[in-house]
């Protein structure tokens, strides 16, 4: 398979151009306050991607910015917030209330099971979760949308288990066009190592047709092959590698840097209002040419020093968080 | 030893202590952001030192040194037994039946302990949209018992939720059975005014206790459904030791103790 030998290491702008067509079904890694591929999100916004269909479990500002920037047509999710930094994604809330996007609700376990089923190559997965919930009764997508490519023909099916007779919900699997994750370390061939919780990154990547990994470090092949049991995605699943140090800012990246409370509080303050959100996008996304320039804008070395993770703890224990 | 009750404490502190007291030693606890974290960290530092704290984002049995601001916070990694991800924790820990007690919250809680974390008004054209289930629906369905934490306001306690994100007793004693959940269910609702429990026969919430400074009648007035207050007594106040640990060890940065729960 010759694709294994091609050079996968590329720039953010190349990776977005090559792998994210308008209308693509995209899944982004991370979980609320950690390891979202933010540099990649900014580049998608700069390239004015349209009509994206996002699938995930608990995204945060990654989806919220894409939605606010007008890049998103529909979402399938369980939760959209930054938890203690912001109890809901403000642009997501407004887009739903204004009817600007289509949405479908599942629970977190529901969504990760759908993704895991996609990764396993099976069409559906049975579960007890969501039984008794209105997530079984209310559907967000229209009959029209249900006919589209990569959209399941039904939200779910309730049935009695053929073996035990107990009630189960059958959830349709998901196989996104592209999954983008932000990992700590990748080798030049594409083997991925993630430190700390994996969240859903492993299954999200394995369910997808194409995989893009942005990362803190790209290392030589031998470095990751010494301890293969610490690696989570084999190289042949990865199509593009982009080295972007601090690429998850303002979110944390375990053992590398912490989340940026100051920026997150500022985001939630500005993103509630259309005009101030536009100013924020102009300043931090459209107004910068590179992630390096962005890092200067958010406070440069002085800020990054504050966020730097303690070697033993994996986060910054002295960080001011309120 | 005689209990020394604290004289000065905030409402948040009282609620954190009430949450902690719901956790028994050696139990496996599914904790969410905010008060459940304060409560489980306090429990781990007081009467339930062997309780196991599980976070849906991956960390299992961590020994928290700094209060996390997210269930996916790097702080949840400290001294954890294992750290995987959502699929592993939800399927092999929660759905496999290992969670003794799960904590929940939401925008609306109804008379049967059902929770709405999704929207107010019509689902397709919501007046207000909330973040959605997250792990709440999963914890409500699959834990052995759940404890709900909520701000007590009339509009947040309707007879019936606009949307049931996380099922409680659904519509009565047989509600969970009919839905296919012959286990679990909510045990208590800890609010800013008191503690509600569920009647054994009807599974409707009644007032078990009102917090110091509040009357049972005031709780009833601030509840949207008809609340039985005949069994109510005053909530046991926090002890001096609990308040000291909460302030000095659990949340010295005043992340949740100061801010209040929304």
What does this structure look like?
The complex is a heterodimer of chains A (322) and B (262). Chain A has helices at residues 12-19, 38-46, 61-68, 90-97, 108-120, 143-146, 201-207, 221-225, 261-270, 274-286, 291-297, 300-307, and strands spanning 25-28, 52-55, 72-77, 102-105, 124-127, 157-160, 167-172, 178-187, 192-193, 210-219, 240-243. With 322 residues, chain A is of the alpha/beta class. In chain A, the strands form two sheets. In chain A, strands 1, 2, 3, 4, 8, 9, 10 and 11 form an eight-stranded mixed sheet that branches. Chain A has a three-stranded antiparallel sheet with strand order 5-7-6, with helices on one face. In chain B, α1 (11-21) crosses α2. Chain B has one domain: Glutaconate Coenzyme A-transferase, CATH 3.40.1080. The longest helix of chain B is centred in the first third of the chain and has 11 residues, at 11-21. Chain B has helices at 11-21, 35-44, 86-95, 136-142, 175-179, 216-221, 240-250, and strands spanning 28-30, 52-54, 59-60, 82-83, 101-105, 108-109, 115-116, 119-121, 126-129, 145-150, 186-191, 194-198, 205-210, 233-234. Chain B is globular, with a radius of gyration of 18 Å. With 262 residues, chain B is an alpha/beta fold. The termini of chain B are far apart. The chains are: A alpha/beta (322), B alpha/beta (262). Chains A and B meet through α4, α5 and α7 of A and α3, β9, α4 and α5 of B.
List keywords for this structure.
heterodimer, A: 322 residues, 8-stranded mixed beta sheet, 3-stranded antiparallel beta sheet, 31% helix, B: alpha/beta, Glutaconate Coenzyme A-transferase, two-stranded antiparallel ribbon, 19% strand, globular
Q: Which residue ranges of chain A are poorly predicted, with pLDDT under 50 across at least 5 consecutive positions? A: none
Shape of chain A: globular
Helix-strand string of chain A:
HEHEHEHEHEHEEEEHEHEHHHH
CATH architecture label name of chain B: 3-Layer(aba) Sandwich
Distance between the termini of chain B: 37 Å
In helices, the fraction of residues of chain A equals 25-40%
Largest sheet of chain A: 8 strands, mixed
Task: Average the pLDDT over all residues of chain B and give the rounded result.
Answer: 96
Q: What value does the Rg of chain A take, in angstroms?
A: 19 Å
Intertermini distance of chain A: 52 Å
The helicity of chain B comes to: 10-25%
* Structure annotation, total helices of chain A: 12
| Overall number of strands of chain A | 11
């Amino acid at each position: 398979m010759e694709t294994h030998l091609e050079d996968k290491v590329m720039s953010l702008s190349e990776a977005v151009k090559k792998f994210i067509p308008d209308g693509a079904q995209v899944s982004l890694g991370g979980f609320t306050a950690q390891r979202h591929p933010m540099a990649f999100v900014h580049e998608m916004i700069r390239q004015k991607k349209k009509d994206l269909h996002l699938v995930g479990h608990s995204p945060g500002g990654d989806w919220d910015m894409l939605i606010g920037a007008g890049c998103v047509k529909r979402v399938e999710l369980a939760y959209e917030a930054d938890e203690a930094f912001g109890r809901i994604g403000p642009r997501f809330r407004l887009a739903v209330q204004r009817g600007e996007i289509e949405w479908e609700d599942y629970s977190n376990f529901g969504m990760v099971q759908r993704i895991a089923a996609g990764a396993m190559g099976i069409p559906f997965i049975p579960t007890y979760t969501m039984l008794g919930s209105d997530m079984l009764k209310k559907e967000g997508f229209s009959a029209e949308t249900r006919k589209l490519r990569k959209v399941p023909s039904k939200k779910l099916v309730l049935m009695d288990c053929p073996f035990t007779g107990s009630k189960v919900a059958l959830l349709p699997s998901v196989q996104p066009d592209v999954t983008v994750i932000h990992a700590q370390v990748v080798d030049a061939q594409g083997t991925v190592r993630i430190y700390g919780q994996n969240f859903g990154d492993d299954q999200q990547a394995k369910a997808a047709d194409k995989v893009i990994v942005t990362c803190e470090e790209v290392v030589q092949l031998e470095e990751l092959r010494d301890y293969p049991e610490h690696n989570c995605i084999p190289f042949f699943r990865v199509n593009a590698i982009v080295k972007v140090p601090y690429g998850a800012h303002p979110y944390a990246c375990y053992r590398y840097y912490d989340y940026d409370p100051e920026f997150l509080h500022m985001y939630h303050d500005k993103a509630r209002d259309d005009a101030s959100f536009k100013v924020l996008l102009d300043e931090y996304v459209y107004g910068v040419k590179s992630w390096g320039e962005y890092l200067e804008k958010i406070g440069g070395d002085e800020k990054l020093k504050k966020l730097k993770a303690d070697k033993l703890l994996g986060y910054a224990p002295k960080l001011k968080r309120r | 030893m005689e209990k020394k009750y604290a004289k000065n404490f905030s409402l948040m502190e009282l609620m954190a202590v009430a949450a902690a007291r719901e956790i028994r030693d050696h139990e496996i606890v599914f904790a969410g952001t905010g008060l459940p974290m304060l409560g489980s960290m306090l429990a781990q530092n007081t009467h339930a030192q062997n309780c196991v704290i599980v976070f849906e984002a991956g960390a299992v049995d961590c020994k928290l040194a700094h209060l996390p601001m997210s269930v996916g916070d790097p702080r949840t990694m400290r001294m954890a037994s294992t750290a995987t991800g959502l699929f592993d924790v939800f399927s092999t820990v929660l759905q496999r039946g290992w969670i003794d007690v799960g904590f929940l919250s939401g925008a609306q809680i109804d008379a049967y302990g059902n929770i709405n974390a999704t929207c107010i008004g019509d689902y397709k054209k919501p007046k207000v949209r909330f973040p959605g289930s997250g792990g709440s629906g999963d914890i409500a369905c699959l834990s052995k018992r759940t404890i709900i934490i909520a701000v007590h306001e009339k509009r947040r306690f309707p007879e019936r939720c606009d949307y049931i994100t996380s099922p409680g007793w659904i519509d009565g004693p047989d509600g969970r059975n009919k839905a296919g959940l012959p286990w679990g269910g909510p045990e208590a609702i800890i609010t800013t005014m008191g503690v509600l429990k569920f009647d054994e026969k009807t599974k409707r919430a009644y007032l078990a206790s009102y917090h110091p400074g509040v009357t049972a009648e005031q709780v009833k007035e601030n509840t949207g459904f008809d609340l039985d207050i005949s069994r109510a007594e005053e909530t046991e106040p926090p002890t001096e030791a609990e308040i000291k640990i909460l302030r000095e060890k659990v949340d010295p940065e005043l992340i949740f103790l100061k801010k209040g729960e929304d």
